[in-house]
Design a protein that fits this description.
By secondary structure, the protein is mostly helical. Helices cover 95% and strands 0% of the residues. Helix 1 (2-127) runs antiparallel to helix 2.
């Protein structure tokens, strides 16, 4: 009987101990589960914040890429304008050079006409007494021809001067358009 009692006591103690161990194991397991659940929530929250940051960065990257594309278009357009302006400047400089040569030629021609008129007029006045009417008519026509040629050269010279001035003004405007503000 003592054995039975001892066996029964051992069995009772074992049952009591196992009953008390199960709830504490259950509580420990519940506590671990709660800790794992909190860790998962924290990781989800961190992941969500990182995804939001990534979305913001991608949005900013897209905006920057659009800005870069826009600036590239502006640069290309500016380069085209610069090339056009440079071509215009070269054309105007060439035209100005031609007009200056033309002006010099016209000025020389006018000098020659004035010189011829002066020489002819001077010699005409000295010989005027010795000539007859037919010579006088011929000389008069010659002077009219010289006067008309002189008037034509003066008119051409004025037009050339105006064209030269106009082209110089265009060149100045074109150069100002091309100048980059400091």
């Amino acid at each position: 009987m003592k054995n039975k009692l001892s066996l029964s006591l051992i069995l009772s103690v074992s049952i009591i101990l196992s009953c008390t161990a199960i709830p504490s194991a259950y509580a420990a397991s519940k506590q671990e589960l709660k800790g794992v659940s909190n860790e998962i929530s924290r990781q989800k929250s961190t992941l969500k914040r990182q995804n939001n940051k990534l979305d913001k960065l991608q949005s900013e990257l897209k905006k920057q890429e659009l800005n870069i594309t826009s600036l590239e278009k502006e640069i290309k357009q500016t380069k085209r304008k610069l090339a056009t302006s440079t071509a215009n400047i070269k054309r105007l400089e060439s035209k100005i050079s031609e007009l200056e040569q033309q002006k010099n030629q016209q000025s020389n021609k006018l000098k020659q006409l004035i010189h011829t008129y002066y020489v002819t007029q001077h010699s005409h006045s000295a010989e005027n007494l010795l000539r007859d009417n037919s010579d006088e008519d011929r000389i008069s026509q010659y002077f009219q021809h010289l006067a008309k040629a002189r008037a034509d050269v003066i008119e051409q010279l004025e037009k050339t001067s105006q064209q030269l001035k106009s082209n110089e003004e265009k060149l100045t405007r074109e150069k100002k358009t091309n100048s980059v503000p400091a």
